## 1
Amino acid sequence: MIKGLSQVGGLYQEASNSNDNQFYLFEDIPFYEASKDKIDLALDQAALAFEESKSLSPQQLARLLSNIADEINSHKEIIIQTYQSESHYGQGRANGEFGRTISQIGTFVRLLEKGQYLHAKIDHSTDATPDLRKVLVPIGPIAVFGASNFPLAFSSAGGDTISALASGCPVIIKGHPFHPATSELVASCMIQAVTRSNLHPGLVAHLHGADYSIGQRLIMHPKLKGVGFTGSHNGGKALFDLAQKRSIPIPVFAEMGSVNPIIILRDKLNSDQNLANQIAESVLLGSGQFCTNPGLIFIQTNDSQHSFIQDFINKITSTDINQFVHGDIHKNYVSKIQNLKEGIPDLKLYQSKSSLGACGVVGIDQLHRYPDLIQEVFGPYSLIVLFDDYQLLTLLAKEFPGQLTLSILGSRSESNTVSRISDSLGHIAGRLLFDGVPTGVVLKSTMTHGGPYPATTDWRFTSVGTDAIYRWLRPITYQSCPDDLLPETLQDSNPLGIYRQLNDVWGIH
Amino acid sequence: MIKGLSQVGGLYQEASNSNDNQFYLFEDIPFYEASKDKIDLALDQAALAFEESKSLSPQQLARLLSNIADEINSHKEIIIQTYQSESHYGQGRANGEFGRTISQIGTFVRLLEKGQYLHAKIDHSTDATPDLRKVLVPIGPIAVFGASNFPLAFSSAGGDTISALASGCPVIIKGHPFHPATSELVASCMIQAVTRSNLHPGLVAHLHGADYSIGQRLIMHPKLKGVGFTGSHNGGKALFDLAQKRSIPIPVFAEMGSVNPIIILRDKLNSDQNLANQIAESVLLGSGQFCTNPGLIFIQTNDSQHSFIQDFINKITSTDINQFVHGDIHKNYVSKIQNLKEGIPDLKLYQSKSSLGACGVVGIDQLHRYPDLIQEVFGPYSLIVLFDDYQLLTLLAKEFPGQLTLSILGSRSESNTVSRISDSLGHIAGRLLFDGVPTGVVLKSTMTHGGPYPATTDWRFTSVGTDAIYRWLRPITYQSCPDDLLPETLQDSNPLGIYRQLNDVWGIH
């Protein structure tokens, strides 16, 4: 079932010796990079598919997503097997991520069935104004770049792809070269679902490759209308810059991670005995390879021997964390830790002898001297920073780069301080937490997985939760349009039975 | 009352001889360009004002807008006088635009009073998920560049400024150098309204100047978070490009006009005797200085003597249109018409002898040879294009640059063709019309005044109608936040009484 070939127009594309370079081998199967003609074909096919998909009803799109979930479910065994061989993640993580992928599809199916997300609005004509009707419509073919750290939930059938398909946009998936076989397998399930749904085969394509030129050609293609990306700052920023240089610029939604600061006030620190363990577990989760991994923990104490620190170090250095999703991430992690160790003499660094976990401890005054301390170290590492005056911390943190999350933990008696910090730092993050840990990004419409640059390239959107669909939609207004020429979403009889605004009142009418 | 000085922090800023250049004279009052220190001060003040304005309730913001409308209303006489002296527009237009400016403010007041635009959503905690609450919040200080063609409705207190203030964002207005006195007057009304509302004086600033460097310094300032612009392609694109090159890119909403094609099918053309007049009036409205001015009219006939053409030419060349808003626009218009005349021998050009109106007539085959024909000529000019086969037209128009509007006019018997054209060309515009003319942009939530690039830089938003507020808002999620630390919009008791989503159900709860 795994062929090592890109899939375009519903078909595996044979590699030609002269054009396609082998870049990977999996169980003796050679994998080939998508050549230019295959990239262009994917865009041509996607543009054709869009002619059909732009008019699909939410119900038809929901059916497509359900079929995708079915196909993936019916290939669970081989997907889980391949995932484990390619990723070095264990069975538990594999099953967890598989479940999240399926349930993510389910949340979009429910969104589509309700139809309110289309923001359909009708204003009947008056003496002074014409009949005006507005609805959101898909923008066109989207490129999705699979993430290295989520071979399932943020790759072929991950949040970016599923939200784009839910909107009615065709998707060209650029599989991540760290897990090409898993990526191809899941994509082939999606392509089968497209066939089973009797939809245009150009709706989903999957391109293989490790060379940057593939992404560049994709981004610059005139038929492409948007981009979803989850990964490193360098990767995301490069795509963003390219897209703005096009003769017609297009939106790039790059989620580029952050250090997700946690601030713990004195009373909370001294009274919650379980806090160190809870946060350390969040740091170690998935070997620390989460975008919402807490990498910076401010604790309000002058005591560098505080029990929180001891407990945290113990947990981090005694837990058995031995595998990264990929060797390259492992290498980067080790080298970043080494650089911190050598470059910052005032940093106390604690490392497990037999495992990967690590943590540092510094005083807040060091953050000014060493801005490297607040850079993301992707992996099971976190930095504890001791502070005393919360106002000084707030002043410092105000200039922090944008974050996906910010956690402010205080006891009930510290409410006022929590409130002041939240007021002055609310602008640096997309999600503010007042209890718990930032890992565990819930798939709801109330989720914001986004934040100010450089956490993402556009903080007005989210890449997790059902609101992720708004990245791929734009409004269109129909003025004085005869009822039978309107899309079903805007017809007088409301044939789809969706929630709409009629002369300023919302309801199913 | 008019001083020729920039206003920052609620105060007129005295010009210093060494820094501020005089660029304009109005009734013997010299006007000075804002020096660098005044631009920087405006941003510093705006950032301070944002600390307050980001937490204002919709009701408080509505009060501010109402006060602005009151102040402007109470200075109506001098504003209308100044407007007429500066713009060359007559009394009727002055009053019309004044009325639109006031009623635009009113639509935002009503939006704020309802509160639903905030998209407040609450998901209570479950066994598996934490309490999550999401609401839209303002993004920060916004620069608004006044438009040349609307000294009131798209300048100091125009759609961009009012939508930004409604969102809770401070605004730095860069007045258009074609009408600095009107711009300053209206801005001073706004600043008085800020004082009357007891709000931070940094909330509204007004900068004078004709030099590009002022806009450049504004755009590159680290405290600026977004930009609204209405004007030429060159101006808008330059601001967009600059903003993307910042170390932290910011959104630029530039509305850069378009030719707003009208397609008239055979039956409609032959049966609607009033059509030529109606469209010609739309072309001549405001001396043709509207973004939605129809500049390209496709008629389904081979008869170059068709009565539509005769009627259209008659109307265009016999109507008395003698004034542009500003001499520079006049000069541009004359030179563009001259270029068409000299550059395109196959174009039949009809010009009024005593007035400004002009129109051209060509066959559709000429559009391929002379792409200049589909460029915007800002003013009372339009091009009639004869076509026969609607499918050929559709094929050609599919590659058109993005448009604000597209009108498809057919009789009832031509419904099928209208529907096919709408299906294949819907992607080129933000608003599709099936009757009437594109000028007259209604101030409703169902309006889309936006469109694919190059009509605007971001087709997912509108610059007219209440949805314009979404350009200045971004989501924030509160996770596990104690009720008393939440913003009022998300507190359990719903103290503001706004429409919210509670566990997936919308209502006032």
Note: The longest helix of chain A spans residues 91-114.
## 2
Amino acid sequence: MSKIPYINNLEEWRSDFKFSIPINIRFSETDMFGHVNNVSPFIYFEEGRIEFMKSVGLFGNLSNDQNDVIPIVADLQCDYHKQMYFNDEINLFIKVNEIGISSFDMHYMALDKHNEICLTGRGRIVSISPANGKPVPLSDEMKQKLLET
Amino acid sequence: MSKIPYINNLEEWRSDFKFSIPINIRFSETDMFGHVNNVSPFIYFEEGRIEFMKSVGLFGNLSNDQNDVIPIVADLQCDYHKQMYFNDEINLFIKVNEIGISSFDMHYMALDKHNEICLTGRGRIVSISPANGKPVPLSDEMKQKLLET
Amino acid sequence: MSKIPYINNLEEWRSDFKFSIPINIRFSETDMFGHVNNVSPFIYFEEGRIEFMKSVGLFGNLSNDQNDVIPIVADLQCDYHKQMYFNDEINLFIKVNEIGISSFDMHYMALDKHNEICLTGRGRIVSISPANGKPVPLSDEMKQKLLET
Amino acid sequence: MSKIPYINNLEEWRSDFKFSIPINIRFSETDMFGHVNNVSPFIYFEEGRIEFMKSVGLFGNLSNDQNDVIPIVADLQCDYHKQMYFNDEINLFIKVNEIGISSFDMHYMALDKHNEICLTGRGRIVSISPANGKPVPLSDEMKQKLLET
């Protein structure tokens, strides 16, 4: 595996994940090259991100008052380490890697049944006010929840 | 081509189409069998349906007052006649086949560059009141527009 | 529920399903109308069809010899009875409704957590020889497997 | 626009694009938040990447002999600068930003009809031998073609 900018120490980075979901690769998510299409991992990242947010009670609710803020995906990236195929048993791991004032980084890792890394990735989530589109600081309670998982 | 329930006379049915759009098959819409995935035609039907509705000035507006009614897809069906592949030049034809009191049938036909039929299909659109979810009769003006194309 | 051409007696038809899978609605499968996009049910039908075929040992194997025949989707149709939303708990039921010489009909029914019907559908699968593209009669063993489930 | 790691000088970076394709946003590519889903830009990047490769005569052909090498997407990333909506007129620009021994970086930029940046992105393509999965040096002819556009 070549050097990934968002991973300093691979063993440490990898062992830091706690939350995961099984990924159900759909036939329509493969392509004519016979494997999972390059777009599909971002579908899985979205699914994992939402399940993670639900698990910490923050889906559709980034502050005490649900209407105060909404989470926006600022960027996303994915490194393709190993081809995935239909019927592969894939687990997607998700963690919060870094928390800023009004945003945080989520990291992603997909492992196959041999525990080999198929995908790694990351993306920044920004807490935004729907009223004016400006970033809103994360509450302490929220930061706590994100860090606990 | 075996008998299709919604086509009485194929030549007549086929010659009745006037409106069409080119279909741009995306790589992610193929699957590991090497051809266009069975789900993808319904993406194309949706694109064609919307372009048709725009062309007659009825997209997002099934009556004189835009908020009176919304169009709902009641059912959809597709017959697969010939495999489609990435890079194929496909044209999708759309027509209104039958107009009822508060609904109408749209028919679909996809031709390849040899003018051979790859797909045929149909689906019913119902005009609904968002307030109570009940069907709303189509206005005469609306019926006129649908028939003209 | 209005009359569906492929359902004679709804109660009977419904009670005849045995096999089902839970459907995991993905966020990317919703659309700007706020509900599950009209294309998405065909993704679920494909997933259900494949899981059903696996469960009877016929996925990628429609005869004794795996390379003799391949299954082809000849047509698909879906009736939309009730809107589905992200986070809805949906179960998709699949059954073989009718077996012909070289093809069979699969029927689909999606229920929400109140056991209300959201979708019904059907589609024909034809057993084809990859060598010449012609239909191949289903073996007795194969028919047996399809009927048992 | 906040600092993007792969863009040094925005004006320079932007003016360096020559090749573009119009993007046809599909209704099924929106989501329940009302805008284009976060996954969809990667569909557009793939479409743009392939059209670019075709335009330089390198699609399905990274060397003189078509079977020698295949292009593999090593990584992909996207920064979301401005929401996109159904019916928006979007142009996607693609360029080769940097050529290495056996790989090159493609950069992406999506502009709306006001010429405002909606998306920026990049991703590495590696030239691989299908026989052993190892990187294969790009030929001089190939490098020439990639640089000319």
Note: Chain A has a mean pLDDT of 91.
